[in-house]
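Backbone-to-sequence.
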């Protein structure tokens, strides 16, 4: 429902994106970042971290009862994750479209998951699925003072301000 609401896009909207351990292992961090950069979005937070089971259970609190949850924990804690916050108009919905369907087999060509992955259990990247989800995830993964307010010099030509 969220996706079809008509609203004025805020250039300050933020979303949480993560390159999952398979993406880091496969050296896809640069390619993932490149897609959001070339679209015109602004990076406002970035870190490489080893995720704890505690953080993961909060991040995926709606999934803890799913049969695949133990595998998801093993996957997401198997190596470093690159956690990011990106900013721009309508960014939550746009990044979901750029990331593609949860199951790469159903993702459209040109999306990150379709272009770089084959299986739902190794789908390279995470993107928040709603404004509320994004706010919750950003607060969970980042301290406020690690998110930077800065002016991108091309902002006046990439977005209507
Ligand atoms: P997302 O928002 O598109 O990432 O999808 P979900 O929030 O529904 O699920 C979170 C993550 O759990 C997905 O990105 C997958 O990595 C994993 N996942 C979801 N469904 C399945 C499944 O059926 N099997 C397995 N093994 N993993 C799944
Ligand atoms: Mg999700």
């Amino acid at each position: 429902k969220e996706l079809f609401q008509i609203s004025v896009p805020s250039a300050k909207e933020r979303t949480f994106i993560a390159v999952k351990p398979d993406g880091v292992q496969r050296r896809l961090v640069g390619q993932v970042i490149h897609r959001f950069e070339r679209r015109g979005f602004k990076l406002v937070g970035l870190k490489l971290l080893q995720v704890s089971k505690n953080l993961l259970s909060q991040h995926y609190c709606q999934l803890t009862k799913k049969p695949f949850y133990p595998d998801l924990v093993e996957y997401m804690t198997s190596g470093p994750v690159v956690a990011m916050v990106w900013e721009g108009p309508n960014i939550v919905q746009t990044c979901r479209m750029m990331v593609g369907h949860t199951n790469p087999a159903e993702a459209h060509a040109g999306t990150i998951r379709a272009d770089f992955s084959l299986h739902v259990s190794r789908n390279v990247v995470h993107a928040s699925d709603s404004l509320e989800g994004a706010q919750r995830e950003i607060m969970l993964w980042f301290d406020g003072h690690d998110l930077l307010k800065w002016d991108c010099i091309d902002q006046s030509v990439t977005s209507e301000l």
